[in-house]
Predict the 3D structure of the following.
Amino acid sequence: MEIKILGPGCKKCDQAAERVAAVVAETGADAQIEKVTDMMTIAGFGVMSTPAVVVDGEVKCVGKIPEREEIAAWLGGGH
Amino acid sequence: MEPIENIACGCEARTRSAREGGLPLWAGLILAPLAAGLWWLVYTHLKPAADYITFRLLPLAPGSHLGEAIAFFLYDTPKVIMLLVLVVFGVGVIRSYFSPERTRALLVGKSLLAGNVLAALLGVVTPFCSCSAVPLFIGFVTAGVPLGVTFSFLIAAPMVNEIALGLLYGLVGWKVAALYAATGLSIAVAAGWTIGRLRMEGHIEDWVSQMNAAGGEAVDEKMTWPERIRYGWAAVVEILGRVWKYILIGIALGALIHGFVPEAFMARIMGSGTWWSVPLAVVLGVPMYSNAAGIIPVVEALLGKGAALGSTLAFMMSVIALSLPEMVILRKVLKPRLIATFIVVVAVGILVVGYLFNAVWG
């Protein structure tokens, strides 16, 4: 699966990316993480507040750092 | 070095913990008044405590430069922090009812003026972070929020915020805080209305209008009351964790001005008698990027040394509302003429406010 962390590179966005990476590593899920900092791409997802997380093209959360449980649920629920 | 657009970025993240079970309701009902009472007890004893430490425990005389500076610092620091905890918590709970998505839905297709007023008010209560100004702008405009109404939101959101209002209330008094809120909202409404009337929709960068970004209804969660309380508390931890150092630096600077700058010194530079003091305050404010937390303790000290209210308000608004990094961010979506119009319109609004208050308060 493909996870995108949307955010222009602020502290919260980095924290969100780190947390997602940590959960992916813990669960051993098969996922590529990509940080998206380009404003055009971010806006293209219809996201208005960052950080936001997109899993396989679907916006999962906006404007907050997701909880570990939430991330685990996305990882487990998809495939 | 950090890219310039990240400097303006103080993301207020929604950290909402799903883990904690939280307190049972009865415990909350007992603890809340207890906490409020304790808060009040400490708050009302800050001044005597600061004086006691400075003039009894330390060998400093009342009226001495250093003594006055230290008493000022010891009194203002806890006072400001306690007030901020209260205000940020309150606003945090209110903000849990709003999201950019909901605000956008309220503003779509609104007429000018009514839309501008609503947008400015929503700007105060909607969670907003200047680093997502661009996606927010695109989200608003492509969904059908009029350009002028969008600008009213974008001007009010950073300018009239809980940190500015809490600090002004605590340091300078409720009258100036209320004036700041009222004039800040008026500038947001007037500037947005003007931009709307100028019909500058053609001066948005072309790629924006080709974009279909209106599909962001994805996440809109309902919260329970304990969750809202936790949301408010998370805002306190997050915001104070971020701004405390600016507050300390600001208050230390303010304390030095308070103790060492002679009375009425500022009256000569920022007094109401000099016509050029308001434009100078605005021009000085633009390259200074500071948040409300750092600038307001300095503002308090300047007012105490005879600076005119209008010039001081103009300076503060210019520092907070017209910042270079934000212009750089917005340049990605606005063509130069629209950016220039935005700056001119907001600057004129600030000038009017400055002159008005200098004339009325003298």
Notes: Chain A touches chain B through 31 residues (CB under 8 Å).
